[in-house]
Design goal:
By secondary structure, the protein is an alpha/beta fold. It has a domain at about 1-105 and about 295-368: 3-Layer(aba) Sandwich (Isopropylmalate Dehydrogenase), CATH 3.40.718.10. The protein is about 40% helix and about 20% strand. The chain has twelve helices and 14 strands. The chain has helices at about 15-30, 45-50, 60-65, 90-100, 125, 165-185, 200-210, 225-235, 245-255, 300-315, 320-335, 350-365, and strands spanning about 5-10, 35-40, 70-75, 105-110, 130-135, 145-150, 155-160, 185-190, 220-225, 240-245, 270, 280-285, 335-340, 350. The strands form three sheets. Strands 2-1-3-12-11-4-5-10-8-9 form a ten-stranded mixed β-sheet, sandwiched between helices. A two-stranded antiparallel ribbon has the order 6-7. A two-stranded parallel sheet has the order 13-14. Helix 1 links the parallel strand 1 and strand 2 (about 35-40). The longest helix is centred in the N-terminal third of the chain and has 17 residues, at about 15-30. It binds nicotinamide-adenine-dinucleotide, 3-isopropylmalic acid and manganese (II) ion (MN). Manganese (II) ion (MN) binds near residues 249 and 253. It is found in: Cytoplasm.
């Protein structure tokens, strides 16, 4: 078996805590002979700034490009609140996404059966939820120029961020979303605000054109504000959602609460396949560095372990092993193990390490 190369970037806050549990799962995958991963670790975010004065070094970027996949924990925190913008922890993550051309961000929101009562929404609203949010990741207001704060002659400051999309950027993310919808429930909701934004007008027209190639998929157009409301009202009306960078950021945190916690949501950020069939990929939880609980050993590692599961599926063609990881997560939840973010009456409260250990224990049991 050829060894697959991973780069682990634990980052800041709870990032290293949840990444340690990913390493535990990786060690099991290697020991069990189900996969052969070799991995190295580097710095990203505030810790990289502290070490090198940059949120990611060129050397770490080279390793990211060379790896078969990158797994990232989280970046950011109050310690770096006053760092110049281009060097802030988040800039490291944005550079990874942009330089690796990771335009397609897949954010599945699945409500595990054991967690139907853990959500702040009613059981019947979330039970059986299996939603895929496809977020455009290298365009839009995150990267559009100009992007600046200017002090005018009057002394007043003016800030501008530019929402910018090219047709080809919308076309390629729409195709990813239609393909995913085809393998799922064959329904796609395209989310924008064409009623006020020119980028929304272009988005809607390009998605409508791409739909010509996917006539078997039912396409609906939903305004972003309405989509937010509908996601709280009845999230199960959606199967696959495709949306821009900023709306995708906000709507995925919103959808996370249907699963019980932001600590449950994994993600895959994918680029286009090259001539050799190689696709750049980065996997990370949807949540951030959670400064409020960092260092306490109570962060939920499921989003990050689930992100490793997505890597097995999307980068390494290890669908069976990915299914095993999902089943192990479902298994420990069914046994009543809960980190505090998903704690319910009568369940067993555990920390990050215990949850990781329990998932590996369940993997061993399921694989036996
Ligand atoms: P956050 O996602 O870090 O935390 C929001 C809330 O969710 C907090 O109450 C936190 O305790 C909780 N939470 C998040 N992950 C959890 C987990 N695994 N287990 C249990 N509870 C969890 O968002 P924030 O507080 O707005 O941002 C903190 C920092 O993280 C900021 O610097 C932000 O830029 C950064 N951030 C980074 C990423 C990333 O690295 N991909 C994503 C989002 C935010
Ligand atoms: C996310 C995060 C990032 C984003 C930040 C940390 C740059 O919120 O991955 O959801 O806004 O994309
Ligand atoms: Mn976010």
């Amino acid at each position: 078996m050829t060894k697959k190369k991973l780069l682990l970037l634990p980052g800041d806050g709870i990032g290293p805590e949840v990444m340690a549990e990913v390493e535990r799962v990786l060690a099991w995958l290697n020991q069990s002979g189900r996969a052969q991963f070799e991995y190295e670790t580097d710095l990203v975010g505030g810790c990289a700034y502290d070490a090198h004065g940059e949120a990611i070094s060129d050397a770490a970027m080279d390793k990211a490009h060379a790896a078969d996949a990158v797994i990232l924990g989280a970046v950011g925190g109050p310690k770096w609140a006053n760092v110049p913008y281009a060097k802030r922890p988040e800039a490291g993550l944005l550079r990874l996404r942009k330089d690796m051309k990771l335009f397609a961000n897949l954010r599945p929101a699945i409500c595990y059966p054991a967690l139907t009562e853990a959500s702040s929404l009613k059981r019947e609203v979330v039970e059986g939820l299996d939603l895929m949010i496809v977020r455009e990741l290298t365009g839009g207001v995150y990267f559009g120029e100009p992007k600046e704060i200017v002090t005018l002659e009057s002394g007043e400051r003016r800030a501008v961020d530019s929402q910018l999309y090219y047709e080809h950027e919308i076309d390629r993310i729409a195709r990813v979303a239609f393909e995913l919808a085809r393998a799922r429930g064959k329904r796609l909701a395209s989310v924008e605000k064409h009623n006020v934004m020119r980028t929304g007008v272009l988005w809607k027209s390009v998605v409508t054109r791409v739909h010509e190639d996917y006539k078997d998929i039912e396409l609906t157009h939903v305004l972003a504000d309405n989509c937010a409301m509908q996601l709280v009202k009845w999230p199960k009306q959606f199967d696959t959602i495709v949306t821009d960078n900023l709306f995708g950021d906000v709507l995925s945190d919103l959808a996370a609460m249907s699963t019980g916690s932001l600590g449950m949501l994994p993600s895959a950020s994918l680029g286009a396949k090259d001539a050799n069939g190689r696709r750049p990929a980065l996997y990370e939880p949807v949540h951030g560095s959670a400064p409020d609980i960092a260092g306490k050993g109570i962060a939920n590692p499921i989003a990050t372990i689930g992100s490793l599961g997505m890597a097995l599926r999307y980068s390494f063609d290890l669908g069976k092993e990915a299914d095993l990881v999902d089943a192990a997560i479902a298994g420990v939840l069914a046994k009543g193990l809960r980190t505090p973010d998903i704690m319910q009456d009568g369940m067993t409260k555990v920390g990050t390490v215990e949850m990781g250990e329990a998932i590996v224990g369940e993997l061993k049991r399921l694989a036996a």
